[in-house]
Amino acid sequence: MTRRLADAVERKARGAVQQQSASWMLASVTAVGTDGTVDITTATGPVIGVRRLRSYAAPQVGDVVKVARNPAGNWVVVDATASNADVWQPLTLSAGFTWTGVAGDPVPSAAKDPLGMVVLSGMITPTGLSTSTSTVFATLPAGIRPQWRGACLTVGDAASVRIYINTGGSISARLVVGSAPTWISLDGARCR
């Protein structure tokens, strides 16, 4: 057998073994379908229309995911790997709004929960809230954005406040009932 023939046989055998073995790898999501699939790019190239498990409920372009492939060539996205969006990150507060500074009060922050919901936490001292307009008081950290705008009701001292979490990253508030609260809670504000 010539060297060239031996190399060709070895390449063919290696390819056959790779195709017939189950494996997993990391990939990046490049597009999210509306039918429960995502497009991904792996180290070996792009794969279109990969089914995702129900546990990977909130796929987003740019997610790094664990992908499995069986010997028949079927692909499935198992779940996303952890990222900075999975931990609480501080909010950037607008001028006139501060953390209450009271021991035991959480610092204003945001995270994404396992279902992809943007969740707020913290206590702030507001300025200039009214019942007629909403006022931008914070910006979400990069990488934490809701898919849709959310409106949530939270409380302050002697006040009810509507919190708007916007897709562009701004967070605004408007008084519903009451006037000039000295603090408002962000806990309970969430949207997808």
Search tags:
192 residues
Description:
With 192 residues, this protein is mainly β. It has 1 helix and 17 strands. The strands form 4 sheets. The chain has a 5-stranded mixed beta barrel with strand order 1-2-3-5-4. A 5-stranded antiparallel β-sheet has the order 7-12-15-14-13, with no helix packed on it. The chain has a 4-stranded antiparallel β-sheet with strand order 6-9-10-17, with no helix packed on it. The radius of gyration is 24 Å and the shape is elongated. The model has no long low-confidence stretch (mean pLDDT 87).
Largest sheet: 5 strands, mixed, barrel
C-alpha termini separation: 63 Å
Number of strands: 17
Strand order of the largest sheet: 1-2-3-5-4
Q: Percent of residues in helical segments?
A: under 10%
User: Which spans of ≥5 residues are poorly predicted at pLDDT below 50?
Assistant: none
Structural shape: elongated
- The share of residues in extended strands comes to 35-45%
Q: What structural class should be given to the helix and strand makeup? A: mainly beta
